[in-house]
Amino acid sequence: MAWKHVIVVGSLESTMKNNIPDDDKIRGGATIWARQTIDSEIFFWKPDKWFKMWFYIVNRVNHKDNKLFERGSAYIEYGEIALKTGATYGQIQSFIRWAKKMQMLSTHKSTRGNIITVCKYNVFQDFDNYVIQAPVKAKSKHNPSTIHAINKNDKNDKNDNISIVAKSDDWDFLEELEKLKNSNRREFKIIALYWKKKKWKFENKAQFSSALKRELRPAKDLVGYKGDQISKAIIHCEENYKEWTLETIHKAINKVINNTK
Predict the structure, then answer these.
(1) DSSP state of 37
(2) Are 228 and 243 within 8 A, CB to CB?
(3) Which of 68, 76, 130, 220 is buried most deeply by CB count within 10 Å?
């Protein structure tokens, strides 16, 4: 395998202490990916191909300074990105334009080719910049009709996945949540993000359908806003309200947008 990426889970110390024989070690280096990535706009809201390009570029740039480039930079032509990711030139141009606007990367044309630099590469590719929390074991309760998958991470970690997932023999909440996330209807994507942030669970299809119908109207009120605007409004609600809903997000979003301009 040409690359590996690392996700920090639980104790970093325990991860680094694994004594693996040299012959068995993974070659080709590694890239650190923050767990926040799965909540980012490019991962959740943007076309799948965009994240594939972003993933390739982050892994492709130099991991240390050399005579030609600083750490986080490299010659990368659009043709190379197209070949490695399957993206069209139109998709590449749209992604690069957006990523530059979001200050995720910068580009510079030289006599030798196109230089791409990943912004904040040194920040994200340094374990010292991550808060490491020890895993907390949760007590599991089982009954004959329901299987509960329990997340063992710190319950206060905002980047945790849904803490408890209800699954029956013929219905899986996580599968339904994934369908909402991948739907072409934007209001469904918004509901999926909201449920994920709230760490909600539904034990059966009836509960799920009832909640979905209830959330459709407030979700449609947010359809006209950009993904990063909704994400910022959610963060605002998490920080300022003990209880908040999609309606709360809608009431707060314009204030959040105006305050960040």
Answers:
(1) G
(2) no
(3) 76
- Domain ranges (residues) in the chain: 5-128, 135-215, 225-261
Backbone angles phi, psi at 23, to 5 degrees: -65, -25
5-128: CATH topology is Arc Repressor Mutant, subunit A (1.10.10)
Phi and psi, residue 230, nearest 5° = -65, -40
**Which tens digit of pLDDT belongs to each residue from 47-59?**
889 999 999 999 9
- Reported as a single tens digit per residue, the pLDDT across 87-118 is 999 999 999 999 999 899 999 988 777 899 99
- The string of pLDDT tens digits covering residues 12-33 is 444 455 677 877 888 888 899 9
- The band of 66, judged by pLDDT with boundaries at 50, 70 and 90, is confident
Distances (CA, A) of 135 to 120, 156, 200, 203: 28, 11, 21, 26
183, 189 contact by CB (below 8 A):
yes
For 64-101, give one letter per residue: b (16+ CB within 10 A) or e: eeeeebeebbbbbeeebbeebbebeeebbebbbeebee
Main-chain dihedrals φ then ψ at residue 166, nearest 5 degrees: -90, 135
| The two three-digit tokens of residue 140, written as one number | 């599991």
